[in-house]
């Protein structure tokens, strides 16, 4: 056994128990009640770009409304989504590094929400803390009867008493200074106890940051720069989303049925909100911004050519932006919330070639994700991927001022960190601003560990060098069963209270979160 690989971790007794925890299983499949739609029968949709409502000096102002919308996800059926501007996924924000962005969010849903910019270096008041909630402007008698009012009364949960809530009525303005590198981020709901069902119903979208360093690189652009929000869902007979929550309205008892405590897996694969779509591409290079927006499903993505063989991925960026130099990958493992920025070269594919994005962790229909069909040749493709991409500072272990240990595991009916369920009043760490710390993550299951505010570099896995896919600045890392992951975490930007948590959303809702405070 490698030193440090499983030291101090209790492995469940018995072969069957260990197989449950140590395999690739990350949840339980929730069967749909519809006939599965035909694969590769609908075109890949591209979410609309969010447009500023006004621009003043160095600030862009946006307005977005959280509301219900009726969309056709399953052909021939209508699905009610809880969407930003009533669509799923929400509009894609495209912003500039160094330009202040303000987003005024209006809540016209029937539930509280909390908007989190995942990967954003944001001040605490705009981070989307789970008890910093936005309630609908007009709370009718029925809504009040469900236990949530204009004020803090009735807002408590077992992990957060009523006194710990901050409640905004009707609208809230989130401020993002955007003092960070170009990167593929995303935004989603982060409400206490109900993140999982509210994201499942549609509260998620892409958020792209650009800067001058990225502008100077000859990457594919325009229609050949494609955001791909990948997730799984299940559906009822009428086309509505199916989810095994205790409270279908998200206003009563939180959590899921016992059979789904490990995580909820859908049986319909969606990309940009469409089931198993097909994208027509030219025989040129394309930039694909891959996001795993699933609640619990993991992916090992491979590009399989029609007739045999595969296409490689040229990996150019991670969660926190560009790598120092590109690397060639034959597969991409993605845990929930991870992003991979890649370039795929279709140049040598004859017109008519079909290339399928496959998830080798899944079986049956869920093994396919989407398909690319080469529809035309281009006279010229001026894009390429240079050998040097970015100014990149590698953190060194000697720079860490302290080492901390965070153990993620199930305890009784809760998912815990260091043996404790989440409490809004408890602080597990107080790192100092502008320092680097070594954080060690251990686990009993697959836990995608996410840090708010802070970005990090993976130092080791199980005492060994990190994998190629761990490269770059990260905000989420997949910690596998009985594995030790060491990360060098840099704390910059702001002082205040932030979160460390598992991004399996069912685990998050069942208390697998902890506070840390930058001082």
Entry summary:
The protein is mostly beta strands and 519 residues long. Helices cover 5% and strands 41% of the residues.
Q: What oligomeric arrangement do these chains adopt?
A: single chain
Helical proportion, percent range: under 10%
Strand-residue fraction? 35-45%
Average pLDDT taken over every residue:
92
Counting DSSP H or I runs of 4 or more residues, the number of helices is: 5
Largest sheet: 7 strands, mixed
Apparent shape: globular
User: What class do helices, strands and sheet pairing give?
Assistant: mainly beta
Structural write-up:
Strand 27 and strand 28 form a beta hairpin. Strands 16-15-13-18-24-21-22 form a seven-stranded mixed beta sheet, with no helix packed on it. Strands 17, 19, 20, 23, 25 and 26 form a six-stranded mixed beta sheet that branches. The chain has five helices and 36 strands. The longest helix is centred in the N-terminal third of the chain and has 8 residues, at 15-22. By secondary structure, it is mainly beta.
């Amino acid at each position: 056994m490698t030193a440090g690989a499983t030291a101090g971790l209790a492995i469940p007794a018995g072969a069957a128990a260990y197989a449950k925890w140590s395999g690739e299983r990350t949840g339980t499949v929730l069967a749909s009640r519809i006939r599965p739609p035909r694969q590769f029968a609908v075109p890949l949709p591209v979410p609309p770009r969010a447009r500023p409502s006004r621009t003043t000096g160095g600030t862009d102002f946006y307005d977005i409304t959280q509301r219900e919308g009726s969309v056709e996800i399953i052909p021939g059926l209508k699905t009610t989504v809880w969407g930003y501007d009533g669509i799923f996924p929400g509009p894609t924000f495209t912003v500039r590094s160094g330009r202040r962005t303000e987003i005024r969010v209006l809540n016209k849903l029937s539930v509280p929400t909390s908007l989190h910019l995942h990967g954003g270096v944001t001040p605490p008041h705009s981070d989307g803390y789970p008890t910093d909630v936005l309630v609908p402007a007009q709370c009718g008698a029925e809504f009040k009867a469900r236990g949530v009012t204009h004020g803090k009364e009735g807002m408590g949960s077992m992990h957060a008493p009523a006194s710990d809530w901050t409640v905004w009525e009707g609208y809230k303005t989130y401020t993002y200074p955007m003092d960070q590198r170009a990167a593929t981020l995303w935004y989603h709901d982060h409400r206490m106890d109900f993140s999982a069902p509210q994201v499942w119903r549609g509260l998620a979208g892409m958020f792209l940051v650009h800067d001058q360093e990225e502008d100077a690189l000859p990457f594919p652009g325009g229609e050949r720069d494609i955001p791909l929000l990948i997730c799984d869902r299940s559906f009822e007979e009428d086309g509505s989303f199916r989810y095994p929550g205790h409270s279908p309205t998200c206003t009563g008892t939180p959590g899921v049925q016992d059979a789904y405590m490990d995580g909820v897996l859908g049986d319909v694969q969606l990309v940009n909100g469409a089931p198993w779509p097909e994208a027509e591409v030219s025989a040129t290079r394309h930039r694909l911004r891959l996001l795993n927006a699933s609640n619990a499903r993991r992916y090992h993505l491979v590009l399989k050519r029609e007739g045999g063989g595969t296409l490689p991925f040229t990996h150019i960026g991670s969660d926190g932006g560009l790598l120092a130099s590109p690397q060639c990958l034959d597969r991409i493992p993605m845990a929930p919330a991870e992003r991979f920025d890649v370039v795929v070269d279709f140049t040598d594919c004859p017109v008519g070639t079909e290339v399928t994005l496959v998830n080798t962790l899944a079986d049956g229909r869920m093994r396919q994700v989407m398909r690319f069909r080469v529809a035309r040749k281009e006279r010229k493709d001026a894009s390429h991927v240079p050998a040097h991409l970015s100014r990149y500072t590698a953190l060194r272990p000697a720079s860490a001022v302290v080492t901390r240990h965070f153990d993620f595991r199930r305890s009784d009916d809760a998912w815990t960190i260091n043996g404790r369920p989440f409490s809004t009043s408890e602080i597990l760490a107080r790192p100092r601003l502008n320092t680097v710390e070594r954080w060690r993550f251990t686990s009993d299951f697959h836990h995608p560990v996410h840090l708010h505010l802070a970005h990090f570099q993976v130092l080791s896995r199980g005492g060994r060098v990190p994998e190629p896919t761990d490269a770059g600045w990260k905000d989420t890392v997949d910690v596998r069963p009985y594995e030790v992951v060491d990360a060098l975490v840099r704390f910059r930007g702001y002082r205040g209270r932030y979160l460390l948590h598992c991004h399996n959303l069912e685990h998050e809702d069942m208390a697998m979160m902890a506070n840390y405070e930058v001082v």
